[in-house]
Design a protein that fits this description.
Layout lengths: L3 H25 L3 H19 L13 H25 L4 H8 L1 H12 L7 H17 L1 E2 L2 E2 L3 H23 L5 H20 L3 H10 L2 H24 L2 H7 L3 H12 L6 H20 L3
Antiparallel strand pairs: 1-2
Helix pairs in contact: 1-3, 1-10, 1-12, 2-3, 2-8, 2-9, 2-10, 3-7, 3-8, 4-6, 4-12, 5-6, 5-7, 5-11, 6-13, 11-13
């Protein structure tokens, strides 16, 4: 059975690969809504293939409370995933990833308020450093800049934290690969209905879009979440969530090398240093 640190390391690597391929999709796709659905379909297929390998003994709970929490989580995740494709068309990979780390602060609060986890000085200090990193990235010419994309970023983070909180409340009773596969299919149906995307539009996007990246995104996305959810089973919510952010450094290096994202590099590196320092403080609170 995998232990905490191998699970976390696997999660970090898959998260970095997922972010890279998702950024490629945002640049190369023609229909962002259809592109989001295609990646979810690919991820669902990968999760189905993982069912014989992971968590075979755990069933899917049909308890009404768990199902209601699942519906709320699925809708929150669907809207968050859709927003990411839109944001990546206007912002680079590094900027989005750094700003999304603000969700760690909210999840620490959720861990304390909802799951009765201890609020230690280390976690408070770590959260402060992560907050400072998010503000640093918005600093231009001595002033913090806010625009419509920042507002959408904040809304996306709220959706992400909502989905994660609801998910943690019921995920212990669910077979993870089966849950993910069904959940992604539900998200696809929700987005197809919300944006009125037809099967013909999906097929057209598959024919003309970056098919290789749809498949790679689905593969890395599925395993990143599988390992993240396994980590939530063996570690505290307010610890697991920040530790996953070590994928940020890997992602920034990949964006610099393969995506050519070199703008505001000193700010990104400084923000990343603050985030990693915050993660170190939070990790120390586990002992």
């Amino acid at each position: 059975m995998l232990t905490f640190w191998p699970i976390i390391i696997s999660c970090i690597l898959f998260r970095a690969a997922f972010a890279h391929n998702q950024q490629r999709i945002a640049r190369l796709s023609h229909n962002p809504g259809a592109a989001t659905i295609l990646t979810q379909l690919a991820a669902a297929t990968v999760s189905l293939c993982a069912i014989p390998l992971i968590d075979r003994a755990t069933p899917i709970s049909l308890e009404p409370r768990a199902l209601l929490l699942w519906i709320g989580s699925s809708i929150s995740y669907a809207l968050f995933n859709r927003s990411q494709i839109h944001l990546r068309q206007h912002q680079d990979n590094g900027q989005i990833l750094i700003f999304n780390e603000f969700s760690n602060i909210l999840m620490i609060g959720v861990g304390v308020a909802v799951f009765q986890e201890q609020l230690t000085p280390a976690r408070i200090g770590g959260a402060g450093l992560i907050l400072l990193s998010s503000l640093m990235l918005q600093l231009q010419r001595g002033k913090i800049q806010f625009d419509k994309h920042i507002s959408l970023n904040l809304l996306a983070i709220a959706l992400l934290v909502t989905g994660m909180t609801l998910e943690v409340l019921f995920i212990r009773d669910f077979n993870i690969p089966i849950y993910l596969a069904i959940d992604w299919f539900l998200q696809c149906l929700f987005l197809m209905s919300l944006e009125r995307i037809s099967p013909q539009q999906l097929f057209q996007e598959w024919q003309t879009g970056p098919r290789r990246h749809y498949l790679l995104t689905g593969f890395t996305w599925s395993f990143a979440i599988i390992f993240a959810l396994l980590a939530y089973r063996v570690g505290d919510v307010s610890l697991v969530t920040p530790l996953r952010t070590a994928s940020l450094l890997v992602s920034l290096m990949g964006s610099y090398i393969w995506l050519g994202e070199r703008s505001r590099l000193p700010q990104k590196l400084a923000a990343t240093t603050l985030i990693l320092s915050g993660v170190t403080l939070i990790a120390q609170s586990r002992s």
